[in-house]
What does this fold into?
Amino acid sequence: MVNELGLGLGLLLALIVVALHYTKGTEWRIADDISQEVLDQRAASVPETDFPEPMNRSIGGGGAVAIGGGAEGELAGEGEEEEDTGFDPSAIPEDEVEYFEVEYVNEGETIEVASNERILEAGEDEGWDFPYSCREGQCLSCGAKLADGEPDDIVHSNNDTLSEDEIEKGYFLSCTAYPQADIGVETNETP
It folds into this structure.
């Protein structure tokens, strides 16, 4: 009752499988790691910025060496003196701190922010996720724009990025900006 043709084909297929299993095929070769070469090419194609940006997210930019004061090279040019912005929030005595209503337009809420409190940090205290990178006024990651108010209603403790023209148009850096009047702000707005 056994079909001789079926039995023969089954044995033939079994022999082929066993033969293929024991034959040595071509060796599997691990591909060369070209990741460093690709990163080097990409880093060469990214233009350098005119200002140091700590933790710069671009290929080949910034890094841990840009963090902290007293660094030499890109951060502090030889013989250069830092420009005094004239605003030091820590110099405001506690009894002279003023509080202003700041409307965060994108979030749809208004909160009270002290004149010695950064606009970025006040929003973060409310649990809002705002963009930022350096927190030192050296990049545009935390950029914002006045929706209501005048450019003089905000002062910066440090601003290495925005030009006077951009400030006049209402742009500011929320990481180093302090309110000086009731204002409305739109976060994540850069010139």
In short: The first strand starts at residue 99 and ends at 104.
